[in-house]
């Protein structure tokens, strides 16, 4: 399993609108690419020097090749279609390979 993680710091003033948009519009568009099995959005519980609220959105994929395919085939289109909050946040993405999953 592989995780495509996007960490986003959102201006405090728009956090509720941004979260609603993520849940109703952006995340469904990412899932509709057919590359991801599911997504998890979490709030990062640290105070940032720059202010705002930080979120981690994790898109679960079968493997790295699927994520690479998404980046090459779908990412630019999705970003061009979804510009509503551009300029009100900063983000970066990372890839995570799941080494082990342990259930209790």
Summarize the SSE layout with pairings:
Layout: E1 2-10, H1 15-32, E2 38-43, E3 53-61, H2 64-73, H3 75-81, E4 89-97
Antiparallel strand pairs: 1-3, 1-4, 2-3
Using the CA coordinates, give the radius of gyration: 14 Å
* General form: globular
Strand order of the largest sheet: 2-3-1-4
Work out the count of structural domains. Answer: 1
Unreliable runs: none
Please give the CATH class.
Answer: Alpha Beta
Percent helix, as a range, is 25-40%
| Number of DSSP helical runs | 3
Number of strands: 4
How much of the residues is beta strand, in percent?
25-35%
Q: What's the CATH topology name?
A: Alpha-Beta Plaits
What is the H-and-E element order?
A: EHEEHHE
The biggest beta sheet reads:
4 strands, antiparallel
Shape-level CATH architecture: 2-Layer Sandwich
Helix-strand makeup class? alpha+beta
Query: Kindly state the mean pLDDT as a whole number?
Result: 94
How far apart the termini lie comes to 19 Å
Structure notes:
The protein has 104 residues and is of the alpha+beta class. It has a single domain, classed as Alpha-Beta Plaits. It contains three helices and four strands. It has helices spanning 15-32, 64-73, 75-81, and strands at residues 2-10, 38-43, 53-61, 89-97. The radius of gyration is 14 Å and the shape is globular. The relative contact order is 0.32.
List keywords for this structure.
alpha+beta, about 35% helix, Alpha-Beta Plaits, globular, about 30% strand, about 100 residues, 4 strands
